Amino acid sequence: MRIVIIGAGNVATHLAKALDANHDVVQVYSHTIQNAETLANVLKHAVATNDLSQIYPDADLYIVSVKDDAVASVVDKVKVTSGIWVHTSGSVSIEVLKHKFQQCGVFYPLQTFSRDVEVNMTEVPFFIEACNEDTENMIFSLAQELSKSVHKADSAQRSKLHVAAVFGCNFVNYLWSISNDILAEVGCDLDVLMPLIKVTTEKAASISPTEGQTGPARRGDVKIMEMHEKMLLPEQAKLYRTLSQCIMEKYNIRYEQN
Amino acid sequence: MRIVIIGAGNVATHLAKALDANHDVVQVYSHTIQNAETLANVLKHAVATNDLSQIYPDADLYIVSVKDDAVASVVDKVKVTSGIWVHTSGSVSIEVLKHKFQQCGVFYPLQTFSRDVEVNMTEVPFFIEACNEDTENMIFSLAQELSKSVHKADSAQRSKLHVAAVFGCNFVNYLWSISNDILAEVGCDLDVLMPLIKVTTEKAASISPTEGQTGPARRGDVKIMEMHEKMLLPEQAKLYRTLSQCIMEKYNIRYEQN
Predict the structure, then answer these.
(1) Please, which residues 11-40 of chain A have a Cβ atom closer than 8 Å to chain B?
(2) Domain coordinates of chain A in residue numbers?
(3) Cα–Cα distance between B87 and A1 in angstroms, integer?
């Protein structure tokens, strides 16, 4: 396949490099020509451009991999071409492409990419949506060349995946920042918690987080919970109580005075 | 050292096996004789008992490894002996031992143990407290034989470690159970989130969770946050809002209407 990559950020870069192994990325667009050139230079024979009107009209696949809120305006500015158009955004509907292109879809990797960190693409879950079955088959197969974890998901399902990731990663990271603050008070950092975090993760993956739940709230241990709240800053104590109450409600636990 | 283990649960079992390699666990107590025997049978030459009045009077070290709320009553029932007495609880003060034994301390492994899951003891952080310097040196060295991560922590500090673990593991696990519920709605489970969770964990460990924070709340992306809240069950939406507000307050982010 002859592929055009529109965007030169982290997702665009990792995808372009991975796809360039079996296919030909022929053109890279970025608003900033230096960024387009930086990416084009690590590909076999891609040409850089910063002019959307110069996008090649004859590629097989166009991948729009820009920030969520820039997808619509990029699509607005490009000329209509044949070939498949996809975007890579978790929270942008396929509709943004549908009104302009006959063959279109979504090619969403559920992973966070950093410029200098190698990612094992075969482990990255891809979620595919397309405007018709032929297009779906094409991009599903393409994703399978990169990853062993390829799924179908329409735009509503993709939003669910995103919100699940907010709870499971963004919010989890925030809780770790609280742990880190508390550990700093006793001269430690998150390192001392990592072995326990690792086991918690393994347990969540193997027996499910609902079965694996432990801790004072799960036991309804009011003595410990009250002691903990007293040790915490007011905002931390409030969140401690909220989360403990959520857990107790989930498992129908009542405060046990012991 | 001649060691007596009081308790035959998961912590007692893992510690007894690890200590028996370089020392002699001579006696195992459990309320239930079968449990004491099960553990004693996998040790070099330990004898089982279910009678606290029969605890050997001449061991070098006594490790009380029972449930938090059972430590005091066990200590109450045993005879005074020479030798060092320690308990292994995160949230029980050293005071419970101090009033009875001249040499006493705490030997707290910050890890969760499961009966049939092997634990790499060298990675487990141990937190040590003792009634005097000699005792502290003794049990600190003992912990160093097992683990490369040994720290001092008084009872107040140990409570902080425990509450940090509640945020970083118990509450995190709860958030993963919410992710899992949301993923189930689209026919997936936590597996599809694991690559992202892994990268989030690595980033938290390497650059700190405060620097590594990402997501709609960190960006103040009100459009996405409102969309997410609408997709969630009422209790989930409430927690989503609470956590998003915590993150926005931490980073001084205001809602941005875009």
Answers:
(1) none
(2) 2-153, 158-250
(3) 66
What does B6-69 look like in DSSP terms, one character per residue? E--SHHHHHHHHHHHTTSEEEEEE-SSHHHHHHHHHTSSS-EEES-GGGS-TT-SEEEE-S-GG
Give the distance from residue A72's alpha carbon to the nearest chain B alpha carbon, in angstroms: 14
Q: Is A176 on the interface with B (CB under 8 A)?
A: yes
Alpha helices, H only, chain A: 10-20, 33-41, 71-77, 95-98, 133-146, 155-165, 172-185, 194-207, 209-212, 216-219, 222-231, 234-250
Could you give the CA distance from residue A61 to residue A213 in angstroms, rounded to a whole number? 45
**Residue B144 CB neighbour total at 10 angstroms:** 13
Question: Residue A113: beta bridge partners?
Answer: none
* B179 to A197: CB separation less than 8 angstroms, yes or no: no
What's the whole-model pTM score? 0.89
User: Checking phi first, is residue A117 left (phi over 0); if not, alpha (psi -120 to 50) or beta?
Assistant: beta
Task: Give residues with Cβ within 8 angstroms of B165, minimum separation 6.
Answer: A179, A193, A196, B90, B110
The helix (H) or strand (E) run that includes residue A147 is: none
d(CA B10, CA B165): 18
| Residues whose CB falls within 8 Å of the CB of residue B207, separated by 6 or more in sequence, listed in order | none
pLDDT (tens digit per residue) in A136-187: 999 999 999 999 999 999 999 999 999 999 999 999 999 999 999 999 999 9
- From the list B117, B197, B228, which residue is nearest A168 (CB)? B197
Q: Which position has the token pair 């094409």? A: A138
> Which residue out of A67, A92, A186 would a mutagenesis test of the B interface target, given it has the greatest number of B Cβ atoms within 10 Å?
A186
Residue A79 pLDDT > 70? yes
Amino acid code (one letter) for A256: E
Name chain B contacts of A179, Cβ cutoff 8 Å.
164-165, 167-168, 209
Say if domain A158-250 classifies as CATH 3.40.50.1370.
Answer: no
Q: Which fold does the domain B2-153 belong to in CATH? A: Rossmann fold (3.40.50)
Q: Chain A neighbours among B 142-161 (CB < 8 Å)?
A: 149, 151, 153, 157, 159-161
The position carrying tokens 């005097």 is B132
Enumerate the β-bridge partners of residue B5.
B28, B63
How is the beta sheet containing B84-87 ordered, strand by strand? B47-49, B24-29, B2-6, B61-64, B84-87, B104-109, B126-130, B150-152
- pLDDT tens digits for B108-162? 999 988 877 788 999 999 999 999 999 999 999 999 999 999 999 999 999 999 9
Helix (H, G, I), strand (E, B), or coil: what is residue B226?
helix
> What secondary structure does DSSP assign to B209-222, as a single string?
HHHH--SHHHHTBH
- Chain B residue with minimum CA distance to A176: B168
Interface ipTM above 0.85: yes
CB contact A240 to B (< 8 Å) = yes
